[in-house]
Amino acid sequence: MIAFWVAAGLLSAAAAILMMLRAARAAEAEPADTTQVFYRRQLAEIGDLADRGLIGADERRSAVAEAGRRLLAAADAPSEAWSAEAHRTSILIVALAASVLALALYVKVGSPGFPDQPFAGRLAKWRASDPRSLDPSQMAAVLSQLTKERPNDPEGFRFLALAQGASNNPAAAVRALKHAVKIAPQRADLWEMLGEAQVMTANGEVGDDAADAFRQTLRLDPSSVAARFNLARYKIKRGDKAEGVAEWKALLADLPASDPRKADLATAIAQAEGTAPPPSAQPAAPQGLSADQLTAVRGMVEGLATRLKANPDDPEGWVRLVRAYAVLGDDAKRDEALKTARAKYAGKPDVLDQLTQAAATEKMK
Asked: What pTM was computed for the model?
């Protein structure tokens, strides 16, 4: 703590010296009196208005007389020179008072006696803890160190990407997955995860990098649903609507009847074609997920919630968020999101109906 107080004192002294130097420079430069310049310019403008016929002769004489009177008064008034000596003491007092006030506030509301917590120590403690007790950001820190110790293990980078995604840090997840595909370029699951992470960093849009990752996925695994869906969406976004919708329909036909993704896909096709979704396209609860998949899903849901806080005018986003919380069994967050969305779209019955249906989605088994 001694080092902290020494640094704080030095910074305060440096700030006071800078203020004094600035005051001294201001004293050396005698400020120009702009008052007379202003009234002379006003007289010139009056003459210009009169020459263009915008004011009459009487108005011109009256305005010129008033401006002239003010000009003479300004010329007769003595200008007060600014003196550094007159203000130096007050400047020094203000600088010292700011430092003392900051110190008093820190002592009152801060923790001056709290011991230092170096990151290395906290990291060692997290590594020794039960992984289930760590939050996503702590788990990401642990996995980041582990990947440095085992730089040729793609699984380490995959788990790191899952933790970063759950920490609402998709950019870091992308970096981890890029390392993973370099180590294991023949793993379709890593390419698929990379594409999905890149979609998250682009606020849900399929960009060129994500499309490249999904193409690599299909090259290695032609049955990848995520790659087929997103590449078709990429084509639709770029103007090739017919081919993209055709690929979606082919994917819809390939999905088993019990696959819960059929409903969302049918809705996407209907929206792209401008038609109403079929009655069977109702939200359904997904099949059970593995622990790491569930972690990734929770990260994506929290990412959606964060995006809606920043850009709340997205009715479809609110419906997805309410449905996701219902599927995850997080009733408190579901009800909170439902309340917020209902208040925002109180005048839109169709959105309210969708929100009600989403909230009634069954919990994942």
From this structure: 0.49
